Amino acid sequence: MYCAIPTRLRHLREPIRRAAQELGYAPVIPFDIGEYEDFEGGSIGRDRTLKFMLHIMEFCDATGIFGVSDGTMLELSESLRQQKDIRTFPGFDPEWETQYEKLKSGYNSPLEKLRGKNFLIALVGPSAIGKTFWSDKLLQVFKNKLIRIKNTTSRAPRNEQDNLSYNFVSREEFEDGIKNQHFLEWDYYLGNYYGTSLAEIRSILEKASGIFALTPKGALALYQMRFEINVAVLLMTPESPQILQRNFERRGILDPIRQQELFQASKKFVLPENVTHILIPISGEDAKDEQVLTAHIESLLK
């Protein structure tokens, strides 16, 4: 991976190196080639330095954008032209959004090109709120515009329909996937692993918008990719405990102890504060809830 780094962030080369390595990339750090004074800050100058770095970037299969500046915007634009794999790491640059707004028009809004027009819609909520139920309903309503993205999980199927929403693997297979960087995000929730493949997401978003269920930790990992994927997080919350009780009974969860465990887990179910989301109160009246959800999806897909 060629690591596109603004000069003002050159002191972060080691954490940037580790971030790329953690995702399975061999990082190419521009500032490893020579010090600032030897290139941009010396007699070679900025323009010749950028030309040299773009030449090096050609030999890398992927580009990581670790900050926003004139130089990294040029590198991003060139990576798009060459159809490279592109990953964004906005957490390294506190000026990311302000610099992008300032510079984007001069580079024909490259992040918008990277994201494309389709949305990745994540339904987030406590167990038994109805994420799978509402995914099925919304897929029926938006047949030609929305495709299901399957989660991978180590839990056992509840019924035959579960195979439409999940890829089921053993705990050992899932843990191998973690080691091999197979998942964009993964979480351990109520005794089971859940994860999502970035390759599957990108494949779906090339055709249409996608929808899937997600845990809070997964929502945070996904939200951090909002500059390379159009992300919409819908947080579903029960208006009353009776809604979860009804869904427990629908699923055949009749053990009072297990029900109480799930009730307690639902109270602790919160999104990280910095994840922008749409709040969807679930009333238990299917027609009313469908109308609310449909309206929000329509606004995203128009």
Overview of this protein structure:
- This protein has 302 residues and is an alpha/beta fold.
- It has two domains: 2-109, no CATH class; 119-301, P-loop containing nucleotide triphosphate hydrolases (Rossmann fold, 3-Layer(aba) Sandwich).
- It has 13 helices and twelve strands.
- Strands 5-10-4-11-12 form a five-stranded parallel β-sheet, with helices on both faces.
- Helix 7 crosses helix 13 (286-301).
- 33% of the residues are buried.
- The model has no long low-confidence stretch (mean pLDDT 89).
Number of strands: 12
Helix content: 40-55%
Instruction: Please write the string of helix (H) and strand (E) elements.
Output: EHHHEHEHHEHEEEHEEHEHEHHEH
User: Shape from CA axes?
Assistant: elongated
Oligomeric status: single chain
Distance between the termini: 35 Å
Tell me the Rg in angstroms: 22 Å
Sheet with the most strands? 5 strands, parallel
Overall tally of domains: 2
